[in-house]
Write a structure and sequence with these properties.
By secondary structure, the chain is mainly beta. Helices cover 11% and strands 49% of the residues. The longest helix has 13 residues.
């Protein structure tokens, strides 16, 4: 059994508004300090916004909503799997949210994580 400790968890939130699967450009959005990177979808732009600690990926506003990819840092006591389970439960309590996909991934350095894509009407 592993001892639990407080670890920083980087939760990437992908807020989509009926998006088709985009192609990917060669541009990467990254933070050396936080240790993450992801490919910028084709047609999207990377921007610094005051509400986010890290660069945010944005695409044109549609129907009053701006689809975005943003990364947040949250303290959590537990495993990545427990964090994912709690996040999934929280999204399940939002009546307009729909989980599109959930997939397991492994980083280049061997750390395992979860990617959850969801849509939400605001």
């Amino acid at each position: 059994m592993f001892a639990q400790k407080t670890v920083p968890v980087f939760a990437a939130t992908i807020a989509a508004f009926a998006l088709a699967a985009p192609g990917y450009a060669q541009t990467m959005v990254s933070s050396t300090e936080a240790g993450f990177s992801y490919p910028l979808p084709a047609g999207w732009s990377a921007q610094t916004v005051p509400q986010s600690e890290y660069t945010v990926a944005l695409v044109a506003t549609r129907g009053g909503f701006t689809p975005n990819i943003n990364v947040v840092r949250e303290a959590f006591v537990g495993t990545v799997d427990a964090y994912f389970k709690a996040s999934k439960k929280a999204f399940g309590q939002v009546p307009t949210a729909r989980i599109v996909s959930e997939t397991r991934f492994t980083t280049k350095s061997g750390v395992r994580g979860w990617k959850m894509v969801y849509t939400n009407t605001m």
